[in-house]
Amino acid sequence: MKVLVLGSGAREHALAWKLSQSEQLQALTVAPGNGAIATRFATEDVELTAPAQVVALARKLEVDLVVVGPEAPLVAGAADALRAAGIAVFGPDQAAARIEGSKAFAKDVMAAAQVPTARTEVFDDPAKAKARLASFGPVVVKADGLAQGKGVVVASSEEEAAQAIDTLASTGAGTRLLLEERLLGREVSVMALCDGERYALLPASQDFKRLLDGDRGPNTGGMGAWSAAELLPPGELEALGAQAIAPVLAELSRRGCPFRGALYAGLMLTPQGPRVLEYNCRLGDPETQVLMLQLGEDLLPHLDAAARGRLRPGPLAVRPGASVGVVLASPGYPERPSLGGRLAVTPPAEGELFFAGVGRVSGQLVAQGGRVLTAAAWGPTVARARALAYRAVQGVQLEGAQVRQDIAARERL
Ligand code: AMP
Ligand code: GLY
Fold first, then answer.
1. Where does ligand 2 bind, in terms of residues with CB under 6 Å?
2. Which of 8, 40, 82, 345 could be joined to 89 by an S-S link, Cβ 3.0–4.6 Å?
3. What whole-number distance in Å separates Cα of residue 393 and Cα of residue 352?
4. How far away, in angstroms, is 107 Cα from ligand 2 center?
5. Conformational region of residue 245, where left means phi above 0, alpha means psi within -120 to 50, and beta covers everything else
């Protein structure tokens, strides 16, 4: 098979790394990729949010399958355009991608599908949202539209919540926002490959969203992740799939927008039971970087089957042990990343470096994005995987780089 992977992040680097091991693979191209991906894989330029360009590229390369990494091309309709052109694509149509593109739409689907979630109120007027704060209780303020993981403020006071409303209203994706009941518990990411009707679960993983050690500081796109079969008790992954994936697939299909691609449920395991915090219409980043190491079988046949509506349901095979990924981010990320710093890289003896925001300037790797790379490693235990991931990230020098030191530190498996 000839495969085109769309995206330019560490997630797409990890997908390309995994797919390149498939016996069914004949050729692989990443578009647009980045300066580091280009040293390992064929890359092509493309405007990801211009569906016609995406179709033209897929035609030029005569690919059998397009795998879409990020949400922006999906929300822009890239998968619709590819399907209309008769090209198999792993990634949902625009209408189904709204499950991530609009939190208000996601809440509506969840209500119809009876998925347990946090109590939410939607506001189109920031002043009305602020007036509601006094009586709302512990609150999380969320922008309705896409904000690259930065449209959510878990407020610790009414003043902070009011400030978040002002900030989101002035900079966010439009003025619509949500107030959501603040929940407490352990977070877990459950992802499923879906073919519109059926789904196959990927291993559970956990993402570290806050910038600083001890889960302090602002939310980011994700500063690290880990995965292990033991992350959830036996049977729990399947139970979460039945509660959070199956009913949403059925509801989207009923509404005439079947979901074909990766459906990601971000869950909070509260004392009252699991609650969905968000859906994403794609694989998680940085979760994918650890999942690709954790999978115990070829991924390509599953993505292809999902794209063609003939998925074999049931969980994918998982390796024993654990995988840990540590993100290295630019100084100033997430608010004001300062870019252009030079990277000095020692390739790790064990584990992988999956690159995101990097370019090449006169043969030198330079930081060009907020999250620069994920260092990821598999090990027979979490402690071993963790040690290897940190050893790998220590081989990367970038002045002012931010790396959390406590990724998967409290896990004892
Ligand atoms: P979201 O993009 O909606 O998943 O939110 C990003 C992060 O904010 C989540 O991963 C949680 O850490 C936190 N968060 C979101 N919603 C809630 C909530 N209702 N209660 C507590 N924390 C939340
Ligand atoms: N790591 C969370 C996300 O990809 O949205």
1. 149, 207, 222, 280, 284-285, 287
2. 82
3. 9
4. 18
5. alpha
